[in-house]
Amino acid sequence: MVFAAVAAALVQGLTGFGSGIVLMVFLPHILPISQSAGVSTLTMFIGNALLVWRYRKALDFKRLIVPFIVYATVATWSVHLGTVLPVNTLKALLGGLLIVLALYFTFGRNAGSVRLPVVVTVIFMVVSGFFNGLFGIGGPLMALYFLTLASSKEEYLASIQTFFFMDTIYVTTLRFVTNVLSVADVKFVAVGMVGAVIGTMVASRVVDHLNIMRVKQCVYVFIALAGIFYLLTGLQVI
């Protein structure tokens, strides 16, 4: 758990998201899917808080309000659906979507430098909230959304880390209230937090040497890798 959390925090610190994707490779082997999503989200809480504090001066909080309301509303509905929906089919669909988006933002002319249309933005928020409630992996589409608004890596990381900090507080509270998580799960979280803090500190030193274009490249590559992984696991190839 410690090593998985270190890897998750390294990815999160470098790309702004992805800790849930890494942890959800490991956690479903020891916990049910809904509990795994809850433990994954809460494991990054301290590491996430450190990043929020570090980039606080670059934050434009107004950018977070509407996306968070939409995202949280959908997550509220989907948080308990892991036992009733076709999980593998949904993973495959998510994987395919992430691959297409990664290719578009990598090779599309000006794709990552112009603001997304309102309709696309809303779709990103809804899809992200749905998969966050279900699997704890709502980050990729929100990363793309905040990247298109940011003019610097600090601005991007401030937005997405604060967004996920708010999400962790809300969704974790919801999971405890609805008994998806219990006090018994805290032992997994506590162990993981140690690794998450270590990984966050290492990632912070690395990201100091990256500019916004390098961060974008890291984001697109990781989204593509995540898409391939979810497509293959959804199709039960791996």
- Helix-strand category: mainly alpha
| Percentage of residues in strands | under 5%
Spans of at least 5 consecutive residues with low confidence: none
Computed CA radius of gyration, to the nearest angstrom: 16 Å
Q: What global shape is seen?
A: globular
How do the SSEs run, as a string of H and E? Answer: HHHHHHHHHHH
Alpha plus pi helix count: 11
Number of strands: 0
Largest sheet: none
Distance from N terminus to C terminus (CA atoms, Å) equals 21 Å
Protein name: Probable membrane transporter protein
Family: Belongs to the 4-toluene sulfonate uptake permease (TSUP) (TC 2.A.102) family.
Subcellular location: Cell membrane
Keywords: Cell membrane, Membrane, Transmembrane, Transmembrane helix, Transport
